[in-house]
Amino acid sequence: MMSGSEMRQQAFHERFLKSYNDKIMKNRILSILILGVMLMAGGCHEPDELLPPVSRNGINSITATFEDGTGTFTGYFTEGSQEIVIPIPFFYPESSDNAVTQDQLKKMRVKANLDDNVVVSPSLLFMDLTQSNTITVTDQLKQQKQYTVRGEIRKSSECQIKEFTIPSLGLAGVINENTKTISLVAIEELAPALAEVTLSYHATISPDPRTTELNYNTQPKLTVTAHDGATTAVYTVVKETPGKLPYGIRSGSAKMLFAKKLKADVGITVDHLTGGIAVTKDYVILNTRNANSIYLNAKTGEKVGEIDLGALKGSLTNFYNTADDDGNVLICNLAPNAGSFKVYKLTSVTSTPELMIEWNGGVAIGRKLSVMGSIDGDAIITAPILAAGQKFARWKVTGGVLASQEPEVVTMTGLAKGWTTNCDIVYTSATDVNSDYFVASYSDNTFAWVDGVTNTVRKSLESISPNYIPNAVDYVTFNNAKYTAHNWVNSFNWGAADAVWMLDVSNDANFAGNLETYTCPAVVWECERDKWGPKGIAPVVPNTNGTGDVAFRVSDDGYFLYLYFMFTNGYVVGYQFDCIDM
Predict the structure, then answer these.
(1) Which CATH number does the domain 59-154 belong to among 2.60.40.2340, 3.30.1360.120, 2.60.120.620, 3.90.226.10?
(2) pTM listed for this prediction
(3) pLDDT, tens only, 308-341
(4) Could you give phi then psi for residue 97, rounded to 5 degrees?
(5) What is the distance between the alpha carbons of residues 356 and 329, in angstroms, rounded to a whole number?
(6) 161-240 maps to which CATH number?
(7) Beta strand 181-185 with 232-240: parallel, antiparallel or unpaired?
(8) pLDDT (tens digit, 9 = 90+) per residue, 27-51?
(9) 85 near 75, Cβ under 8 Å?
């Protein structure tokens, strides 16, 4: 007899087998039902065989590099041909005069671009591209094709004019590659002049405007011949008044005119003391405390000369400069450190400084000075009063006459902290003291749009990191649009904040968000961050005063907008924008 324990185990096994067999039967019945449904729905078709997709060629391209790993040259499969030719430039780098030799082609690193599940034999590593090399490509279906691979040193067929300028006339040609025309935006008769031209590498031009003065009033034609000697392009230089866009700058028209290191390129010998730029029609004038001002060609950035400041020259007396719309340069001192607040004017780079404003207000003032309009006509001049809440001094000029040596002291509200030693204020009108104005300030660290009637912040961008310094602002109207320029300065040798933005402020709808996180929709352009300040120059000399400047200028014909900016101990940079309808 089975024990009680054995009887319980046997009963368990019987129940388990019954349950298992029931499940098997149910699964079989379910499978039969599913198969029946499939047969009724689709009939008795054999299933399609699942295979990987098949490429027509299997091989797409072969890329070669020199034995040392430099260069990247790609040859592509051509339909109807069993040959892959890898073009190698005649010169490498192409901008150099280093001719590629046949010996360099004898041991080239090669790599094939293949479709999935395709193999090539023999295995690719090196090839003598002076010879025809046979390779076998086996595709996903094990079908084989043979190809020959070789290299070919080719002279360039590029024949473009990439840049065209006439520095002596202050003109930059607008190149339309589709029509092969170079437009010189000019109304007056042009004197014969030499041009500066950038061509495709190793191309030639005839006649050569770099060595022959051409008459640009007669639409001269320039023939560019590629290095291969066979490919040519003919450009026509046209003096014209092109159409303007109905609004604002042309997208993509931003063009760097120059970027000059203050010390190495411009010749400023001291650090920390270059704090302002004044921009006229022809010049960018750099103010360095206790030194004569240096002026640069506004189109090329080349140093032209120095302004003799005479007795005005001093560490605190020529503290900052700016310029009005008619090219008058204003220079101020730092008060009360240097006594009463004084503003001097220069009518040209060769004139002698004349005292224009003297105010013994007993306040800290003079680190920044802005002028909207022209002191020969109508203008509003502003200077922030430092460490005094949210106050600034304002002078008005009407018909070339200063209303009073005594300014109106304006108190504004709406900033969380106000400013300390870094603030800049610019009005949007040369005549209306009730017009809106813009304020860039530290340590409030906001960029604010202020209602000129109530002197209360109308809108502001989000505050930035307290490690960075908003230092300068400018405003301009250009082609029916209104723009501000604004900078951040980095006073450390770490971080990434030396930057300049241009914002469309034609209305305040997009004046919101954060410049630091790229979330301000009013931004239409910004420079590369952390490139043009001291960190872009070795050895790094931190901008401990946290100074810099921005300035707009509109060409007399209204087609070009120029933006200049400077970072102390770094660079002075010029950009050009246009509104040409192309």
Answers:
(1) 2.60.40.2340
(2) 0.69
(3) 999 999 999 999 999 999 999 999 999 999 999 9
(4) -110, 25
(5) 11
(6) 2.60.40.2340
(7) parallel
(8) 444 443 433 433 344 443 333 333 3
(9) yes
